[in-house]
Write a structure and sequence with these properties.
Blueprint lengths: L3 E4 L9 H14 L6 H5 L6 H11 L8 H18 L12 H10 L4 E3 L6 H8 L7 E2 L13 H9 L7 E5 L2 H9 L3 E5 L10 E3 L7 H4 L3
Parallel strand pairs: 1-2, 1-4, 2-3, 4-5, 5-6
Helix pairs in contact: 1-4, 3-4
Bound molecules: 1,6-di-O-phosphono-beta-D-glucopyranose and magnesium ion.
Keywords: Carbohydrate metabolism, Cytoplasm, Isomerase, Magnesium, Metal-binding, Phosphoprotein
Family: Belongs to the HAD-like hydrolase superfamily. CbbY/CbbZ/Gph/YieH family.
Enzyme class: isomerase
Length: about 220
C-alpha cells in the first residue's frame, strides 16, 4: 500500500500557467523579446530565475544584464504575476482536486506540495486548501530544480514517508522525471501532452480514486 501523496501546484492543483504567461510576455515585450504559448510550455515547472534566463537566451540577450538587473527583472515579473492572482479562489481549483484531497484526509493519508513556486503558500491559502497539506517544500532550500528529484525526496521526508511509498502528481515532463528519479509512483495529469515515463496518465483528477491509487 502507498502511504502518502506529493503534489505539484501549477497545472495539478490550479492553473496559474496562464498568469505566468501574461506576466512573462509583458516583461519580455519590454525587453524587445516576443514569446508565444509554445515557448511558454517550456517554462512549466521551471524556477523564476531559470525562466528569465530561458527568455533572455531565446531573445539572444543572455549577456545583456548584470545579476542585480536580472533579479530586478524577475521581481518585476513577480509583482505583475501576484497582481493577476488577486481574484484567485476555490473556484480556481482544477476539477477533482478538492474531492481527492477530502478523500485523502478522510483516510489520514499525508499530503505535501513539491512546487517550484515561491508563491505556493499564498496560492494554496487563496484556493482554500492550505490545511490539507502537512508540508510545502520551500524552493529556496533546493540545490537543484526539477527534473532533479530533490524537491520530491524532501516532500516525502517532510510527511515522514519513504519515497517508494509515495505517489507524485505532475503536469510537466520535468516533474515526471523528478518523481521517477525519486523512486515514486508517477501520476501525470494532462489533457494535451504525452508525459513520458508516467506510471499512469489522466486528463484530470476527476478520474482518480484515493482508495484505488493506494493499492498500485
Ligand atoms: P514563482 P510548479 C512553477 O510551478 C511554474 O510551473 C513555473 O512556470 C514557475 O516559473 C515556477 O513555479 C516558479 O514560480 O515565480 O511563483 O516562484 O509547476 O512547480 O507548481
Ligand atoms: Mg506544474
Amino acid at each position: 500500500m502507498k502511504k502518502g501523496f506529493v503534489f505539484d501546484l501549477d497545472g495539478v492543483i490550479t492553473d496559474t500557467a496562464k498568469f505566468h504567461y501574461i506576466a512573462w510576455k509583458n516583461l519580455a515585450a519590454e525587453l524587445g523579446i516576443t514569446i508565444n504559448e509554445t515557448f511558454n510550455e517550456t517554462l512549466k515547472g521551471i524556477s523564476r530565475m531559470d525562466s528569465l534566463e530561458k527568455i533572455l537566451a531565446y531573445g539572444h540577450k543572455e549577456n545583456d544584464f548584470t545579476t542585480e538587473e536580472k533579479e530586478a527583472l524577475a521581481q518585476k515579473k513577480n509583482e505583475e504575476y501576484v497582481k493577476l492572482l488577486a481574484d484567485l479562489s476555490e473556484k480556481d481549483l482544477l476539477p477533482g482536486v478538492h474531492n481527492f484531497l477530502v478523500q485523502a484526509k478522510e483516510r489520514s493519508i499525508p499530503c505535501a506540495i513539491a512546487s517550484a513556486s515561491k508563491n505556493a503558500p499564498m496560492i494554496l491559502e487563496k484556493l482554500g486548501v492550505l490545511d490539507f497539506f502537512g508540508h510545502i517544500v520551500d524552493p529556496e532550500t533546493l540545490k537543484k530544480g526539477k527534473p532533479d528529484p530533490e524537491i520530491f525526496v524532501k516532500a516525502a521526508e517532510s510527511i515522514k514517508i519513504e519515497s517508494k511509498d509515495a505517489i507524485g502528481f505532475e503536469d510537466a515532463q520535468a516533474g515526471i522525471e523528478g518523481i521517477k528519479a525519486a523512486g515514486m509512483y508517477a501520476v501525470g495529469i494532462s489533457e494535451t501532452e504525452n508525459l513520458a515515463g508516467a506510471d499512469l496518465q489522466v486528463a484530470s483528477m476527476t478520474e482518480l480514486s484515493v482508495e484505488k491509487l493506494l493499492t498500485v
